[in-house]
């Protein structure tokens, strides 16, 4: 046997070392841990998780949302007020006709004569067509000032339970809007009153008006009738009643379109203590359609 064959047999003879199986993970060297900096972590994007050996998918780690300078949600702007310009543009004769039409529409159970008796004469309305600004809440102070012979009198009051001006609105939220506009007439001695059932009961309102000088009150038609009956408002002190008639709600309805509210408005204005004094003369009660 040649010397070359002997070397070959010697190299293969005996028990050789077992080569590690490529699939045996226990023999693999441990993977090196790589340290990731905080800056690099922030740059990592969320990716779908890989399936585990048992086929389940682990939930990806949650990342807290980081607000950026431009991520702020802008504050919503309030809706612009809607008003019926056709009502605002009517003179006293046309306003009287409009009220008569609404009485005929909403007081269907009455006879024609009874409906006529409820009407408001044109002489009761002050001509406000000269006021050209929009009939929105923020313009109400200017509306009153421009339609009053003595603007300074809007900040005065003769005594308790003796307001000179009443503003009638269809609902409590509208009362609040008009009140915020009219507080410019507040003084240390004389107040502007917001009188709605959500804030005060009738007894509380009565006590407030009987103890406080309130020159202007903003309320609903029904509540005004209650206050007069409770002697919280002296009709003899009134100089003007402002009807918030051109304002439209979300359904594009004005106070004159809402049956219940319009009926209450007509009823309170037909109270003897008020109806007998409606007019534009000295010492009478003027109706102003805002």
Features:
Rossmann fold; 11 helices; 290 residues; globular; alpha/beta; 5-stranded parallel β-sheet; single chain; two-stranded antiparallel sheet
Written account of the structure:
- Helix 9 (221-229) packs parallel to helix 10 (259-269).
- Strands 3-4-2-5-7 form a 5-stranded parallel sheet. Strands 1-6 form a two-stranded antiparallel sheet.
- It has one domain: Rossmann fold (3-Layer(aba) Sandwich), CATH 3.40.50.
- The protein is built from 11 helices and 7 strands.
- The chain is α/β, with parallel strands linked by helices and 290 residues long.
- It is globular and about 45 Å long.
Give a brief description:
This protein is of the alpha/beta class and 290 residues long. It has 11 helices and 7 strands.
Count of all domains:
1
State the helicity in percent bands: 25-40%
> Helix and strand string, N-terminal first?
HHEHHHHEHEHEHEEHHE
SS element count, helices: 11
Low-pLDDT sequence parts: 13-17
Q: Please list the strands of the largest sheet in the order they lie side by side.
A: 3-4-2-5-7
* Percent of residues in β-strands: 5-15%
Please tell me the overall pLDDT: 84
- CA gyration radius, whole angstroms: 41 Å
What top-tier CATH class fits best?
Alpha Beta
- The end-to-end span amounts to 129 Å
Level-2 CATH architecture: 3-Layer(aba) Sandwich
Structural class of the secondary structure composition? alpha/beta
Oligomer: single chain
Shape: globular
Number of strands: 7
**Topology-level CATH name:** Rossmann fold
Biggest sheet character:
5 strands, parallel
């Amino acid at each position: 046997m040649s010397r070359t064959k002997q070397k070959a047999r010697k190299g293969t003879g005996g028990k050789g070392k077992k080569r590690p199986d490529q699939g045996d993970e226990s023999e693999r060297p441990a993977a090196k841990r790589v340290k990731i900096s905080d800056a690099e972590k922030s740059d990592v994007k969320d990716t779908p998780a890989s399936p585990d050996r048992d086929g389940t998918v682990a939930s990806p780690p949650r990342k807290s949302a980081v607000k950026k300078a431009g991520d702020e949600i802008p504050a919503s702007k309030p809706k612009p007020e809607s008003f019926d310009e056709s009502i605002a543009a009517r003179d006293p004769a046309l306003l009287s006709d409009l009220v008569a039409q609404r009485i005929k529409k909403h007081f269907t159970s009455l006879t024609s004569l009874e409906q006529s008796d409820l009407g408001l004469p044109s002489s009761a309305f002050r001509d406000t067509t000269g006021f050209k600004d929009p009939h929105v809440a923020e313009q109400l102070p200017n509306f009153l000032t421009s339609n009053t012979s003595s603007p300074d009198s809007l900040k005065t009051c003769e005594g308790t339970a003796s307001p000179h001006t009443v503003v009638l609105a269809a609902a409590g939220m509208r009362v609040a809007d008009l009140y915020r506009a009219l507080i410019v007439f507040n003084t240390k001695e004389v107040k502007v009153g917001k009188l709605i059932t959500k804030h005060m009961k009738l007894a509380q309102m009565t006590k407030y008006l009987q103890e406080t000088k309130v020159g202007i009150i903003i309320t609903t038609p029904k509540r005004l009738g209650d206050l007069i009956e409770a002697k919280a408002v002296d009709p003899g002190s009134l100089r003007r009643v402002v009807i918030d008639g051109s304002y439209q709600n979300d359904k594009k309805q004005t106070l004159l379109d809402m049956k219940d509210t319009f009926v209450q408005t007509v009823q309170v204005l037909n109270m003897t203590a008020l109806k007998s004094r409606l007019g534009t003369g000295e010492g009478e009660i003027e109706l102003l359609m805002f």
